[in-house]
Amino acid sequence: MPTERFKVRVTKDHLVFCCGHFISYRGHQCERLHGHNYRCAVEVEGPLLPDDFYVFDFIALKKRTKEITDELDHHMLLATNNPVISVAPTPKCVQVRYEDREWQFPRGDCILLPIENTTAELIARYIAGRLWESLRTNENFTPEVLRVEVEEAPGQSATVEWRA
Ligand SMILES: Nc1nc2c(c(=O)[nH]1)N=C([C@H](O)[C@H](O)COP(=O)(O)OP(=O)(O)OP(=O)(O)O)CN2
């Protein structure tokens, strides 16, 4: 008897989030500020739910993902744990420093992420963590496998996979 597995995947234009960012690379270098129309795709794997005959409702999956991507949309993404870029928030602004370069952003324009770098990989991991928790608390659902893909631009993306 063959075995079977099911997976559902959502990626939609409303799961696009437009953000400014810059990353450090090779340990000590720092990109110039630029932006992306990031696109998020989410997959969940698991057995079919007995009453519904689906792994998980597309509608709920889109809603819970969109709640997270909407928080990021139209913001400057800043990683607070970067070893070479310092991020200092005050009530009104965020001051960012890398060597002799300095930026200042209005506080409300920034999302401070507790990650090391705003790479597509770590943004995907951040979204996966938030979504895992949201599905558990709001939908009483823990997928066997959750994959979050963040596409920076068409043709380049990073995916993280979480397993229960
Ligand atoms: N594995 C990863 N590699 C890189 C990431 C990343 O998040 N994960 N990010 C960057 C940069 O932030 C940058 O935004 C991407 O650089 P680049 O590919 O040069 O961007 P373009 O869209 O201009 O690419 P073209 O193919 O030249 O149009 C770098 N690496």
Automatic annotation (TrEMBL):
Source organism superkingdom: Bacteria
Instruction: Give the catalytic activity.
Output: 7,8-dihydroneopterin 3'-triphosphate + H2O = 6-carboxy-5,6,7,8-tetrahydropterin + triphosphate + acetaldehyde + 2 H(+)
| Name by which UniProt lists this protein | 6-carboxy-5,6,7,8-tetrahydropterin synthase
Q: According to its UniProt record, which protein family does this protein belong to?
A: Belongs to the PTPS family. QueD subfamily.
Tell me which UniProt keywords the record has, alphabetically: Lyase, Metal-binding, Zinc
Q: Which Pfam families match?
A: PTPS
EC numbers listed for it are 4.1.2.50
Q: Which cofactor does it need?
A: Zn(2+)
Please state the pathway this protein functions in, per its UniProt record: Purine metabolism; 7-cyano-7-deazaguanine biosynthesis
